[in-house]
C-alpha cells in the first residue's frame, strides 16, 4: 500500500528556486543536494531537485518548460484575496503570471510559472 507521495521537479538553480518558494511563504526543508517545499495544510511535498540529479534519476531528458508543460500543479486556497496575494508574491519573486486572477469554469483562480517555468494553478474551491 502506498504510504506517501512526493512531486519531484527539476530546477536549474536550487538556491533561486528555494528563495522563490520562501517568498511565497511556503516552508522549505533544505537538504544538501535538494529541497522539499511543503504545500498546503496537508503537507504535500514538492521536491526541488537540480536538473543533473533529476536527469540521473530518470535517465531521460528534462522537459523544456519554454516549449511545453510537463505538469500543472494546482493549489486550493481559501479566498480570492489569497489568489491575488500569491500571484503578486510569485511575480515579485521572479515568476510570471500566465493567467490573471478571475472566474474560470465556475471557480475563481489564477496561474503563475515559477522561476523554472513550472506552472502552478490557484483555485478557490
What is the residue-averaged pLDDT?
94
Question: Over the alpha carbons, how many angstroms does the gyration radius reach?
Answer: 15 Å
Helix fraction, binned, reads 10-25%
What is the name of the CATH topology? Answer: 2,3-Dihydroxybiphenyl 1,2-Dioxygenase, domain 1
Strand % is 35-45%
- How far do the termini sit from each other? 29 Å
Strands, total number: 8
CATH class assignment: Alpha Beta
Shape type: globular
User: CATH-wise, what's the superfamily?
Assistant: 2,3-Dihydroxybiphenyl 1,2-Dioxygenase, domain 1
Estimate nothing, just give the exact number of structural domains.
1
Arrangement of strands in the largest sheet: 1-4-3-2
Low-pLDDT runs of 5+ residues are none
| Helix/strand order | EHEEEHEHEEE
What summary fits the major beta sheet?
A: 4 strands, mixed
Oligomer: single chain
What class, by secondary structure content? alpha/beta
Total helical elements: 3
Quickly give the CATH architecture.
Answer: Roll
